[in-house]
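REQUEST FORM: STRUCTURE PREDICTION
Request ID: SP-0412
Submitted by: Lab K.M.
Chain count: 1
Length (residues): 78
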Amino acid sequence: MTECQAVQRAGVPGNVASRRRKKRERTVVLTYLSGTWPGIYHFSDGRLKESSARRCPRSRPKKPAKKNAKKPVKKNPP
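STATUS: Completed
RESULT:
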C-alpha cells in the first residue's frame, strides 16, 4: 500500500511526520486518532512497512422499541 492509498482509505490524518534517513530514504508516519481505520502507519520510500491500524466497527442505529399490540377484549355473551 502506498501513502496515497492509505489516505484514500482512511481519510485525512491527524498528524504527519516526514524525514530523510541514510541513503536518501524517505520515511513518513501517518497517525489517525479517529475514523474507520485509526492507528499509526509507517512508510518507507512510499510503501507501507508497518501498521497498528484496526478497523472500528461502525455503530449501528438502534432499532426502535417494539410497541406491544393490545389484545382484543373478549366480550362475554349475555
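NOTES: The first helix runs from residue 3 to 10.
Reviewed by: T.R.
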